[in-house]
Amino acid sequence: MASKRGKLIVFEGLDRSGKSTQCERLVTHLRHQGQKVEHMRFPDRTTPIGKMISNYLSGQTQQEDHVIHLLFTANRWELAKAIESFVKEGTTVVVDRYYYSGCVYTAAKGVSGLGLDWCRQPEVGLPRPDVCIFLDIAAEEAAKRGGYGEERYERKEMQDRVRELFGELREHHDEREDIVVIDAGRGVEDVEEAIQKAAVKAWDVVEQSGLPLRKV
Length: 216
Ligand code: TMP
Ligand code: MG
What we know:
Elements: E1 8-13, H1 19-32, E2 37-41, H2 48-57, H3 65-88, E3 92-96, H4 99-107, H5 116-120, E4 131-136, H6 139-143, H7 156-172, E5 179-183, H8 188-209
Parallel strand pairs: 1-3, 1-4, 2-3, 4-5
Helix pairs in contact: 2-3, 3-4, 4-7
Bound molecules: thymidine-5'-phosphate and magnesium ion.
Thymidine-5'-phosphate is lined by residues 15, 42-43, 57, 72, 97, 101-102, 105, 151, 153.
């Protein structure tokens, strides 16, 4: 039976964990199955706010830590209505990074007062994912992959802390029930298969329960 609404599926992980590749593969897979799918990514660098974020990440500009945190959040809020509309009309939205990254990357800076709880507050009310697929890989492994080190947060100490904080989010916060951990240190096909299984499982939960799209 066709479902009334689409699903909201998020990918998270360290830089170079394979998110973008796996996102594309899942999008292609779901489309082959006849699903309507929209592919988004955060930061969305195409909007005016996204351009400010991109300039900050490349090192062209500086931003105060609270300010850049809120710009990342604002970049999600500018697309929140669009996500809700897609899901409502039956289109599944697959997102490369979301508010989980928003919380952990800022908190990983270790700035006083900018802990996970503070960071999470402006995200409250955003569409809540049906599942967050966390591609788990050690920072050393990720660093061996191409292109690492080009942007502001792509340093080993930062990535190590990001990984720890993703762990904290999974253990102690409301997010824990949404997050499925996938070992991303394996071959692309193996990771893809594990992701498809996780997606199907989350999908079935929504279908069987008739769960509406919730809010963070
Ligand atoms: P990207 O490599 O997926 O384009 O993301 C750019 C960087 O921005 C990456 O290091 C993670 C970081 N980031 C945040 O700090 N906060 C956020 O809210 C998001 C979505 C990403
Ligand atoms: Mg990156």
